[in-house]
Amino acid sequence: MSISTQSLEQAPFQNSFVEELKGEASRNKNPRQVPGYHYSRIEPTPVRDPHLLAWSDDLGGFLGLARPEERGPAVNALAGNLVTESMKPFAARYGGHQFGHWAGQLGDGRAISLGELTAVDGSTWEIQLKGAGPTPYSRRADGRAVLRSSLREFLCSEAMYYLGVPTTRALSLVGTGDKVVRDMFYNGNAQEEPGAVVARVAPTFIRFGNFQMMAVAGEKDNLRALADYVIKHHYPELGEPSPEVYMRWFEEVCRRTAVMIAHWMSVGFVHGVMNTDNMSILGLTIDYGPYGWLEPYELDWTPNTTDFSSRRYAFGQQPQVALWNLYQLARAIAPLVHEPEALRGSLDQYTKTLAETQHAMMLRKLGLTELNQEEDRALIEGLHEAMAESQVDMTIFFRRLSHAAPALIASSENQNALFQEIVQAASYGTSPEGEQMLHQWLQRYTDRLHQESADPEAIRESMLSANPKYVLRNYLAQQAIEAAETGDLSVLNRLMEVLKTPFAEQPEHDELATKRPDWARTKAGCATLSCSS
Ligand SMILES: Nc1ncnc2c1ncn2[C@@H]1O[C@H](COP(=O)(O)OP(=O)(O)OP(=O)(O)O)[C@@H](O)[C@H]1O
């Protein structure tokens, strides 16, 4: 049965954000403070030659949208060149803590939302164009985005979705035909790069920073209206807003944020810039900027060169930083509840959910069922220590372990050779101490596996479904970028296809699951990135 789809420019948009919240009357794009409002109505600025570079078929189908032609009205709408009658585009006003410091008003400086579409299951999704031109929140920047960062955002949003990580999605990547000037290395050498627009999709893009902005400005009515809007549309199960419901809502935000962080930690995703304006009120991964995937297992690794000195947003810091961010959200919404102190209790919900979810996810990754919680905790702790010491490739290590599980259970005489093979497969030059720790851990793990009653093949299958073979290693994204910049989309297309089923073997794509090559270790974009985008 074929599901009927329509072209984007024919799709009927709803505009609950614009209609239910407060927008300023002025439509001018001059940078300014916008006190007293949730958003500004602002039209995207047209680009020279919008052409489709990539399209997410699954998401398009889910939204009832037909895949657009390379050029035409649908792509014009995806670039911001065509605003249809039912769209009421807007840029939201928010603030945020950046690297721990309150930065004042930020807002959508280059993202413009077109409105909301109804998906085939009846749910509602906001469509937002990133790189669509200046808004009152652009400050001194140009409102545009370069192809390299847009391609990274497009690819990773979808890759994370297929990994099962809570995330915003990406519908399309459109080349603009315009050049954008950026200093990619922050060395003063600005150069022209191709521009692009990504159409992002999420139930809402509201961030912690939207609430912080209203609170800092002392706009209590706006703060309440925003909370009521979010609860009504996105947490309806909590009931009619009231001081008690705000408490329960905050607890739920804490819970969802914990689940998101547990997912990041379980696949080795490092967001790179967890400012409070990059924390979604729905617990979704948002803003794929200087993110990266852990290759050698290092807790203090960050892909973001801007964060090299403080390492505030390093892999191992993410759980703590999310808690700090939630604390800032609690401070922002405190005026809405009777007992602000009680919000602190909800932060415990974060810590508890994070610990439980991480533990459950790690058991799945190891093919273990809950037998003895204390012992299993110690086993998992030991694994983290051994991985940190040996700095093995996290993704490859777990994948190899999954394949090896039946052999480990069979306990042949060649056990040491098997241990060696697992470590070697994932090693970037492990120290003898690191190797020894991993061998000892593997012995402990093998003993523990013996206590499992399931069929070894079933254990292997279940581990393979919890340990992805393919993740978007930075150097892979960089290869797709370099090809796309010369007009070759084949690398991008291949990655899109492979990352749709990251847990499947897909042997013809083995080379996309290998260790980071040596040349990529220091090359810009391949391991580390600046915020330039
Ligand atoms: N080229 C740009 N033009 C205008 N504003 C920008 C530009 N780049 C970033 N900003 C703004 O700077 C702030 C923080 O930057 P950040 O890098 O987190 O944003 P981003 O990647 O554009 O945004 P998002 O969080 O929407 O993905 C945001 O207010 C953002 O809109």
Structure in a nutshell:
With 533 residues, this protein is an alpha+beta fold. The chain is built from 16 helices and twelve strands.
Report on this model:
The protein has 16 helices and 12 strands. Helices cover 41% and strands 13% of the residues. The chain is α+β, with helices and mostly antiparallel strands. A 5-stranded antiparallel β-sheet has the order 3-9-10-8-7. The protein has a 3-stranded mixed β-sheet with strand order 1-2-4, with no helix packed on it. It folds into 3 domains: 8-208, no CATH class; 211-363, no CATH class; 368-464, no CATH class. A hairpin with a 5-residue loop joins strand 7 (111-118) and strand 8 (124-130). It has helices spanning 16-20, 57-62, 73-79, 147-163, 208-216, 220-234, 243-267, 318-333, 343-366, 373-390, 394-410, 415-426, 432-449, 456-464, 474-485, 490-498, and strands at 23-24, 39-41, 51-55, 90-92, 95-98, 101-105, 111-118, 124-130, 169-182, 191-202, 269-270, 292-293. The site of adenosine-5'-triphosphate (ATP) has 18 residues, from loops.
Overall number of strands: 12
Q: How many individual helices?
A: 16
Q: First CA to last CA: what distance? A: 42 Å
Whole-angstrom Rg:
24 Å
The strands making up the biggest β-sheet line up spatially as 3-9-10-8-7
Q: Regions with pLDDT < 50 over 5+ consecutive residues? A: none
> Could you describe the largest sheet, including whether it forms a barrel?
5 strands, antiparallel
Structural class given helices, strands, pairing? alpha+beta
Strand-and-helix sequence, N→C? HEEEHHEEEEEHEEHHHEEHHHHHHHHH
Chemical compounds bound to the protein = adenosine-5'-triphosphate
Give the percentage of residues in beta strands. Answer: 5-15%
What is the overall pLDDT average? 96
